[in-house]
């Protein structure tokens, strides 16, 4: 299929850009750096936005309906001269296709970010935002001897807006083609004496089927692109099921926590680890201040576990969950927690208040042991009652069974024949 040219600009702008094309040049720039692993003279696109979620592997972004995002064009590597040496340049031009997205024009000087540009041009000069194409250009000077630029990085940036309805669009950087696309992305070389050299199109990264003419009745055209992204105006798909481990809290305390019934005065760091993901996590390691402990059972989604590490640091204490990188998570950036927790004052030792429901022999939960408890035990053994209010207190001799012996021991305790229960 023949490649259809982009919509032509007004006569005045065409002349302006034609003049620009006659001035653009590049020259050797000793010592200038190129982007690592990038073809000489290559350009690429970057999509950013508060409501944009991008997958660089698939060159696809999801953006909320009606939200704004930025498309930036970067020069990734300097061009090379005939000897394969990185060379400076004196001008450049770009052509962006933005499909059915809405272009929000800004001042030309705000869109052309190339710091060495002395003369800038945009086509259309006063865009409505619905043209589907926008071109930018610039040169380093206006005289016959143009200085060389060695800038590598962002050169152009525009703002686009998603449609309010869910839809998918293409954003593409179109390379220069002399006959079909004279305003396409290119760099210009400097000839001897600073005079103008040839127009060098940016390298082609692939092909993309694009609706260049906005006519839905004609099939898309397969065209060469320097770079291209797919923009999906709509909510991103739900993330895949995966765990997500995080340290919810970190504090210095006794191993027994705030309880006054402690047997050791050693303080340590207590951390609470949670799985806030959508799947269970397998075994993982938690490290606190360099000490590590393995959570062998793993952690179910929506669950938390508490760990205590002996010792602490005065000042900064650091906890890291999944320290051995055993779990593939939804978010790998929330595994660390750094805090400066206060060092607590030890509580005064105390004797724990006994639980009235934890008194051996008190089978009716009355708070005391008496003859009624012995009678209830005998009735249970005879089948006259079906259960006890506090069955955990019934096995007085810890034999593993509740029988008449337990009743007899309760009576002996009540009569003062034995000093304590259990026996």
- What CATH architecture label of the largest domain applies? Sandwich
Question: What separation lies between the terminal Cα atoms?
Answer: 98 Å
- Written as H for each helix and E for each strand, in order along the chain, the element string is HEEEEEEHEEEEEEEEEEEEEEEEHH
Shape: elongated
Q: Rg, please? A: 38 Å
Task: Supply the number of structural domains.
Answer: 3
Low-confidence segments: 1-35
- Kindly report the oligomeric state of this protein: single chain
Question: How are the SSEs ordered, and which strands pair?
Answer:
Blueprint: H1 11-23, E1 43-48, E2 52-55, E3 60-63, E4 68-75, E5 91-97, E6 102-104, H2 108-111, E7 119-123, E8 133-139, E9 153-161, E10 167-173, E11 186-190, E12 196-201, E13 206-210, E14 221-225, E15 227-233, E16 245-254, E17 267-275, E18 284-288, E19 291-295, E20 304-310, E21 317-321, E22 336-339, H3 371-382, H4 404-414
Parallel strand pairs: 3-15
Antiparallel strand pairs: 1-4, 2-3, 4-9, 5-8, 5-10, 5-11, 6-9, 7-8, 10-15, 11-12, 13-14, 16-17, 17-20, 18-19, 18-21, 21-22
Helix pairs in contact: 3-4
């Amino acid at each position: 299929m023949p490649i259809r040219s982009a919509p032509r600009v007004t006569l005045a702008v065409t002349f302006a850009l034609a003049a620009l094309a006659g001035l653009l040049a590049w020259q050797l720039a000793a010592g200038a750096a190129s982007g690592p692993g990038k073809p000489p003279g290559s350009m690429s696109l970057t999509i950013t936005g508060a409501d944009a979620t991008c997958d660089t592997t698939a060159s696809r972004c999801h953006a909320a309906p009606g939200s704004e995002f930025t498309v930036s064009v970067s020069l990734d590597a300097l061009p090379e001269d005939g000897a394969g040496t990185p060379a400076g340049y004196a001008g450049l031009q770009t052509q962006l296709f933005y499909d059915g997205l809405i272009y929000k024009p800004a001042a030309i000087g705000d869109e052309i970010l190339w710091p060495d540009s002395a003369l800038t041009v945009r086509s259309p000069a006063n865009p409505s935002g619905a043209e589907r194409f926008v071109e930018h250009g610039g040169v380093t000077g206006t005289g016959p001897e143009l200085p060389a630029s060695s800038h590598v990085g962002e050169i152009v940036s525009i703002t686009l807006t998603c449609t309010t309805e869910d839809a998918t669009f293409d954003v593409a950087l179109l390379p220069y083609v002399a006959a079909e696309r004279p305003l396409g992305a290119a760099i210009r070389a400097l000839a001897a004496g600073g005079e103008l050299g040839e127009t060098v199109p940016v390298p082609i990264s692939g092909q993309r089927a694009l609706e260049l003419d906005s006519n839905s009745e004609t099939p898309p055209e397969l065209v060469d692109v320097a770079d291209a992204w797919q923009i999906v105006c709509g909510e991103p798909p739900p993330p895949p099921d995966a765990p997500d481990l995080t340290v919810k809290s970190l504090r210095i305390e006794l191993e027994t926590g705030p309880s006054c019934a402690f047997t050791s005065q050693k303080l340590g760091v207590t951390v609470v680890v949670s799985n806030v993901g959508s799947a269970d996590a397998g075994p993982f390691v938690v490290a606190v201040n360099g000490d590590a402990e393995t959570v062998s059972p793993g952690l179910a989604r929506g669950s938390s576990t508490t760990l205590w590490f002996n010792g602490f640091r005065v000042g900064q204490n650091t906890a890291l969950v999944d320290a051995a990188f055993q779990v593939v998570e939804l978010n790998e950036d929330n595994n660390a927690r750094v805090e400066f927790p206060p060092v607590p004052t030890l509580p005064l030792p105390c004797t724990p208040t006994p639980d009235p429901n934890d008194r051996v022999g008190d089978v009716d939960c009355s708070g005391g042991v008496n003859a009624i408890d012995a009678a209830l035990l005998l009735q249970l053994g005879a089948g006259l009652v079906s259960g006890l209010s506090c069955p955990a207190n019934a096995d007085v001799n810890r034999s593993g069974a509740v029988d008449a012996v337990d009743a007899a021991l309760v009576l002996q305790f009540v009569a003062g024949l034995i000093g304590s229960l259990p026996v």
